[in-house]
Amino acid sequence: MRHAPRRLLGVLAAATLAFTLFSAAPTAGATTAAKTAPTASGALATQPLSTSTPVVFVHGYTGSASNWTTAMSVFRLNGWSSSNLFAYEYDSYGDNITNAQGLATFVNTVKARTGASKVAIVNHSMGGLVSQYYLKVLGGNTSVSHLASIAGANHGTTYAGACLVYTTCQQMYPGSSFIARITAGDETPGTTAYATWYSACDGVIIPYTSTRLTGATNNNVLCQTHIGYLTDTVVLGRIADFIAS
């Protein structure tokens, strides 16, 4: 069940993040408090959501662990222990293949530390490319129970044309060999539960529908900016519910 009234989550919307490009514009909506399952008599019984799954947050281009300050607060308010919340940092100007390999090592470290057999991954922007390569090409889906992609550049973005001097931006541009590799065939492999959040107001993921993954639960947010997601407590609460389900 949700562990704090929604008014507490609203307090977090004032949090600021040292990042790039655009300012926040929170959205409104409802969250899911619990899932239901049929009992032996056929009636629906409310079951508590699980918050024991370790969560690995993967930032976007030029980002850092600090981007997830609000998200971690929301997850703690929804029942997660701080000891089960982790932020992976990588080189935004390097190579996303190397970054995905680093994510694989990081996930294995988290599993060893927590004793969990699987983790959940929450990514943002270019973190979608790093995550998708890990799950699909490196076989990481066997270690991931849930993947939540927030404004992920999963099919690329023409916005990357502004930084093509870097390998990561070349890989993030639509039509790149990197994009072709992670989108060929099954975009949501394995038994991992996949979900995305995307918005026409994004402004950085162009086209904004690039975030959607075939086979995932794709959530169209009415209007949210690319960076605004990082302090959007409503969307972050929905993601916590998704991972706890």
Helices and strands, with pairings:
Layout: H1 6-11, E1 35-38, E2 44-47, E3 55-58, H2 69-77, E4 85-88, H3 96-114, E5 119-124, H4 127-137, E6 144-150, H5 167-172, H6 177-183, E7 193-199, E8 217-221, H7 233-244
Parallel strand pairs: 3-4, 3-5, 5-6, 6-7, 7-8
Antiparallel strand pairs: 1-2
Helix-residue proportion: 25-40%
Molecular shape: globular
How would a textbook summarize the main sheet? 6 strands, parallel
The chain-level mean pLDDT equals 85
Oligomer: single chain
> Helix count, per DSSP?
7
From the alpha carbons, calculate the radius of gyration and give it in angstroms: 17 Å
* Low-pLDDT ranges: 1-48
Distance between the termini: 10 Å
* Fraction in beta strands: 15-25%
What does this structure look like?
It is a single chain. The protein is an alpha/beta fold. Helix content is 29%, strand content 17%. The chain contains seven helices and eight strands. Helix 2 crosses helix 7 and helix 3 (96-114) packs across helix 4 (127-137). The model is unreliable at 1-48 (pLDDT under 50).
